[in-house]
Amino acid sequence: MEISLKIVGCWDWYEKPRKEYQIFINNIYLCIVLFVLSNLLLSLIVNLYTEWSDIMSSLEKMADGLPLIASVLIVSYFATKKEILYELVKYINDNFKWRSARGLTNMTMVNSHKTAKNFAFFYTACTIFSVTMYVIMPVVVHLWTKQPLQPWIYTDISYTPFIVLIFLRQCLAQAFVALALGQFSVFFACNSILLCGQLDLLCCCLRNVRYTALLKAGVQHSALSKLYSDIKEDEKHNYLYNKAEMIDSKYHYDEKVIKNIIGVKTDFDIYSSEYDNATSEALRECARVCQVINVYKERFEKFVSPVLVLRVVQVTLYLCTLLYAATLKFDMITVEYLVAVALDIYVYCYFGNQIIIQADRVSTAAYQSAWPAMGARPRRLLLNVLLATLKPVIVRAGGFLPMNLHTFVVV
Question: How much is the pTM?
Answer without folding.
Answer: 0.88
